Amino acid sequence: MPEISLDGIHFMLPTPFTGDGTLATGPYERLVAKAADAGCRGVVCLGVMGEAPRLSDAERAAVLEAVVAQAGGSLTVTAGITSPSHHLAVLRASEAESIGATAVMVAPPPMAKPNEAVLFDYYRSIHDAIGIPMVVQDYPLESGVHMAPEFLARLNAELPGARYLKLEDPPTPPKITRILAQTGDSMSIFGGLGGSFLLEELARGAVGTMTGFAYPEVLVEIYRRMSAGDTGGAREVFYRWMPLIRYENQPGIGLSVRKHIMMRRGLLDTATVRPPGPSIDAETQKELDELLGSLDLERV
To answer: By 3-state DSSP, what share of the chain in percent is helix, strand and coil, each rounded to 5?
Structure first.
């Protein structure tokens, strides 16, 4: 297993579409360039924000190929490969590695009766099939599967490649403390959830975050200040941007909100979300415009 450090901020990429919902890989040049300019450690594609379940296998490969090409080795590329079966997850993980992904991110599969024996075998199957690190995604609101700190510590102890965790099981700060008490430095934890708890997560020992907040440079600045011991400065930046972090992270419409902001920033050509994903209405767009107008968007 290669020694790769993912510590830092990772920009969770949306999947760009044309107005009629056709995949458009061109905007990845701007999206990945923004991540690099912002000081991100890497990018993540084919996650929940990337609408991965709404993509065909050919589209998934095209997305990853485009992102890896744009990253060019200067940014890490983590590819989501969550799948409904062990077999399909292994195929997707192997494909991601062959295309050039730095790591794979995987959440539990849908299970009628979740149990740890099946779940451990799922992760072990993926782990044993690849030679790149695995980011375990703990997002029970999406997966429907709760993973206790003890189970996550077992994954980390028995599967050497499972040394990263993307924790999105709120309240995240206390769970970080419980996990690190069992794993120590052997498991590195990232936050998510739009950066809503980034300040507290870093204070509890998280090594960064993987999320799609439309201003990744803000999250990088918070991370840099916390890493330098400037908790007060990090808090000041976090609180200044919290109104937008909060508004972006609305359940259901959060992706559409982010895509509208990214389109406004010139990172996307459209804000199209594939149905049945919801798009924001005119009143929400007006609220968003008013919120953005109230912020000093040039000041990080």
So the answer is: 50, 10, 40
- pLDDT higher than 90, residue 4: no
Domain at 269, CATH number: 3.20.20.70
- Alpha-carbon distance 84 to 82, whole Å? 7
Is the per-residue pLDDT at 239 higher than 60? yes
8 by DSSP, 3-state: which? strand
Two structure tokens written together for 271: 């804000």
Looking at every residue in the chain, the average pLDDT score rounds to 96
Q: For 187, phi and psi rounded to 5 degrees?
A: -120, 125
What domain count does the chain have? 1
Alpha carbons 98 and 111: distance in angstroms, whole number: 28
The answer as to whether 47 is a domain residue is: yes
Q: Is 3 among the domain residues?
A: no
Token reading at 188: 């590195």
How do residues 147-162 score in pLDDT, each as one tens digit?
999 999 999 999 999 9
Give the pLDDT of residue 249.
94
Q: Is residue 299 part of a domain?
A: no
Q: Is residue 277 a contact partner of residue 230, using CB atoms and an 8 Å limit? A: no
In which domain, by residue range, is 173 found? Answer: 8-294
Q: How far apart are CA 287 and CA 156, in angstroms?
A: 43
Digit-coded pLDDT (tens) for 58-111: 999 999 999 999 999 999 999 999 999 999 999 999 999 999 999 999 999 988
Residue 210 lies in a domain: yes
CA-CA distance, 171 to 157, in Å (whole number)?
Answer: 24
Burial string for 230-260 (b: 16+ CB within 10 Å, else e) reads eeeebeebbeebeebbebbbeeebbbbbbbb
Helix (H, G, I), strand (E, B) or coil at 166: strand
CA dihedral 84, 86, 87, 91 (to 10 degrees): 90
Distance CA 161, CA 201 (A): 23
